[in-house]
Amino acid sequence: MHQVMKQILPSSAGNRLAALSGPSFAREVALGQPTNLSIAAEETETAHSVQIQLSSRTFRLYTTEDVIGVEIGGAIKNVLAIAAGAVDGLGLGHNTKAALITRGIAEMTRLALAMGGHPRTLAGLSGIGDLVLTCTGHLSRNRKIGEAIGKGEDPRTVLKHMIAEGVETSKSVHALAIKHKVDMPICTEVYQSLHEGKPIQAALESLLSRELKDEVY
Amino acid sequence: MHQVMKQILPSSAGNRLAALSGPSFAREVALGQPTNLSIAAEETETAHSVQIQLSSRTFRLYTTEDVIGVEIGGAIKNVLAIAAGAVDGLGLGHNTKAALITRGIAEMTRLALAMGGHPRTLAGLSGIGDLVLTCTGHLSRNRKIGEAIGKGEDPRTVLKHMIAEGVETSKSVHALAIKHKVDMPICTEVYQSLHEGKPIQAALESLLSRELKDEVY
């Protein structure tokens, strides 16, 4: 998103751009429940300035220079939340969800790395933190869409009356994965289930039949 | 644990030791629900051999050489699960829990690194994966102890009738943090709440009043 903004805004605005992202259901922020986020800007001073201005005792911002990493995490978590919802809808358990989140982080990290981000960012609030929130909290619309599909509803029907960011993002992620030659099996299955008519059971089977390997990114 | 086993077993057994760890509630494994784990051994061949022998379609092992990282993740997640339970008991929300998990991973990672482990391991199944399972699944006894304390019960009373691994592990982690000069604020607060009579509200306040900084390990 910051690349789009740089194209649109006057060049002088470029180094005043910052991205705020992390696990933050708005309702809980409003209730004053402790919330931590990442604040990313290419210029460290910009990030520190926003950190000082927006932080309170229960709303705490951590600075980073990795704008790409923060944005990738914030976007892809919506696609993975659809997969997490499908896990719920299929009646699978906590083990499967935890594995999905972990392997999902690995996918995010590979793409961020290929695009110039830093792996550590995805291990932080705007990566793991936001993904855990979206996949396990019950307030996520992305998760609900996945749940309906997991229960056997036709994605075309579901998408007629429900909408969430991850549906469109799955197309962008699929395109980016191809462009940067990054292996993103979970995101690919979400894309194929939503947009290419692949049955959800077949998507799960594809993930389970992958070759066993070392646990690396 | 593998250090202890090496001391006790004949030296020839050393390179046949492997550590299996990851998000795996036993009940769900028994039900055949998809479960992924890390299998760690200093000798790659050992890990691959166990991988081949134990894996099935729904029980999938990923190999790694980082035995220390896998063991640290499996142990510390129990301490952090007590903190996650306290978050629930205090009536705090998903944002706080997600932040706790994320900052908890950072603590695990710092200690593992200081002890010779690899940061990537903690971003994997035996780190993030197991931590997410233990902190968000409702089957964890560690989480239940934290919840009781968060609700205002006296830790001394709670520990008389409930027992979980994290209670003792919090002592070992506290000692290791001091020995390796690693900053582990969440584990320290759990230790002080359980064993030094620090009130849970004061522990929370300590975490919220820490200086704001960059989001790094």
Summarize the structure.
Chain A has 217 residues and is mainly alpha-helical.
Notes on the protein architecture:
The structure is a homodimer of 217-residue chains. Chain A is mostly helical and 217 residues long. The first copy, chain A, contains twelve helices and three strands. Chain A has helices spanning 2-8, 26-30, 44-54, 67-89, 94-114, 119-122, 125-136, 141-150, 155-161, 165-179, 185-195, 200-208; strands at 19-21, 35-40, 59-64. A three-stranded mixed β-sheet of chain A has the order 1-2-3, with helices on both faces. In chain A, strand 2, helix 3 and strand 3 (59-64) form a beta-alpha-beta unit. The two termini of chain A are 25 Å apart. The model of chain A has no long low-confidence stretch (mean pLDDT 92). At the A-B interface, strand 2, strand 3, helix 5, helix 6 and helix 7 of A face strand 2, strand 3, helix 5, helix 6 and helix 7 of B.
